[in-house]
Every structure is written in C-alpha cells, then in structure tokens.
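R.M. (postdoc): so does anyone remember the format we settled on? I'll just put the structure tokens first.
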C-alpha cells in the first residue's frame, strides 16, 4: 500500500475535527492486514475512538477479535462510521458519547462498557486536544485547564474506574507523542501533557506490576488525523510531516499495529515502555 499520499491545504474550525471532512481521508487499515485472533475474547475501551488513530485502533482490534467500546465527544457521523467499520469485522461496537473532562462520565463509560460486554481487558487512553500559541503569554488559564483535563487528567479518571475490572494479563495503553521527547515551541501545554503521560505510564506500570496488569504507551510522530487540519492553517497542513527522515506524515494504519502488539500476549514482557512510530526520528527515551 502506498502511504505517501498528497495532502492538500485545508483547515477545520473546531476540535477534535472531523475525519469525513478530510482530503484525502486517512488510511484506517491496510487491505493486507490479516487478523490472527490475537485479541479473541477481549473487550477494549478506546477514548477518541471515533476517528484518527483511535478509529484505526478500534478497527485493528476488531479484526483481531476484540469487542470494542469507543468514547467520543460530538463527532456523531464519524463515530457511526467507525461503528460500521468495527461491525464489518464481525464483532460488536458500543458508542459512548460524552466529555472525558468529567470524571463522573469517565466512570459511567467504564460501567456501560462492562454492563454491555461483561468485562474489560484493554483500556486505551487516546483522546487529546491541542491549541498552538506563539508565546506562553498567549496560553490562557482556560486553555491550560482544558488541555490538561482532556489529555492527562482523563487518564487518571479512566484508570481509577477501570482498575476494579482489570485482571492479570490485561493492559492499559496511553497515547503520548513525539513532542514529549523533542518538545514543540507552538504547543507548550500540549507537549507538557504528553510528557506527563510518559511519566504517568512509567509510574503506573510499577504501581500495577504486582497485579500483572501491563501499562505501556505509544508516541506517534506526525500522523494524518482530524486533529491536524483542526489545529493548523492550510500552509502548515500542506507541509505536515515532510520534515521526518521518511519525508512524509504517517497514516493511522501505521500506528494502530503498535497498539495491537501492546494489547495482546505478544508483549507479555513489556510494561512501562513507549513505542515510537514516528517516521524515523531518533529520540532519547
């Protein structure tokens, strides 16, 4: 499959953005990806599962045999499309709409998942928002609170709610970012939350090691998702990802297999680790 697609200049006026408005739409799963039952009998809950990386993870998990619940904010059309993709793989998909900044909603999402499927085995903390600013003085207290509430506080909420349902061999996977390692001069608050997610992952992995619940993370580089046109202007979108050694942005389909690996038994000796699908950027960590 050719992942080097031409990205046209485009913007969207609100986050987290809509996949159905992107040109071209991201590649969700490659045709040659063959499931092998790696997640048969498993139940996964994915935040931000309606589009982008979250959608791709949901479809890959489904192809591997998992039942999937996805949490989304207000992207009804994208969420329904993801549900159709998951169910086309022969499994079930539960849609849960709400704001993950609300701890009560996070608890209820876990409860709804367990009530629907009877258990929970994999928690994927993936949802995020970002708002570029030229100066730290331009970052309002409101923006700072919003970004941290979505990107990192929600992970605490979901893990606290999920833990009573997770057993030995189950998995928590957090989405961090290349910006946690190289920084981002325009995304100070976003990259700070992503750094916090790395520390959260490492610390929680130690905390849960005795329970044999594995905690890992994925740190994508520039990936073509709705968050990109919803964040940057047309000029920056056209140049997006071209600075990487591979010379292009990645596709969600090139990231989701990392989540499959961390969710299944293949990674049984991995905990506290971060995988880096980032187009060849060599990082310390």
């Amino acid at each position: 499959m050719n992942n080097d697609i031409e990205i046209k200049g485009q913007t969207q006026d609100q986050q987290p953005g809509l996949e159905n408005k992107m040109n071209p739409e991201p590649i969700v799963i490659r045709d040659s990806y063959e499931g092998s039952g790696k997640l048969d009998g498993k139940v996964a809950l994915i935040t931000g599962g309606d589009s982008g990386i979250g959608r791709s993870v949901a479809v890959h998990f489904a192809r591997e045999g998992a039942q999937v619940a996805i949490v989304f904010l207000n992207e009804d059309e994208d969420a329904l499309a993801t549900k159709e993709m998951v169910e086309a793989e022969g499994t079930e998909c539960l849609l849960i709409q709400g704001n993950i900044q609300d701890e009560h909603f996070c608890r209820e999402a876990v409860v709804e998942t367990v009530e629907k499927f009877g258990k929970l085995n994999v928690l994927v903390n993936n949802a995020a928002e970002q708002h570029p600013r030229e100066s730290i003085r331009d970052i309002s207290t409101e923006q700072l609170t919003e970004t941290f509430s979505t990107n990192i506080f929600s992970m605490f909420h979901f893990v606290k709610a999920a833990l009573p349902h997770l057993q030995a061999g189950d998995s928590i996977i957090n989405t961090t970012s290349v910006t946690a390692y190289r920084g981002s001069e325009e995304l100070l608050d976003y990259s700070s939350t992503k750094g916090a997610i790395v520390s959260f992952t490492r610390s929680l992995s130690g905390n849960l090691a005795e329970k044999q619940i594995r905690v890992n993370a994925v740190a994508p580089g520039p990936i073509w998702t709705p968050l990109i046109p919803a964040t940057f202007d047309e000029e920056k979108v056209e140049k997006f990802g071209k600075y990487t050694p591979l010379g292009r942005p990645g596709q969600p389909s090139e990231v989701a297999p990392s989540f499959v690996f961390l969710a299944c038994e293949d990674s049984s000796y991995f905990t506290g680790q971060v995988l880096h699908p980032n187009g060849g950027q060599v990082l310390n960590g």
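R.M.: ...and that's the designed sequence above, right after the tokens. Also worth knowing: The chain has a mean pLDDT of 94. The longest helix spans residues 141-162.
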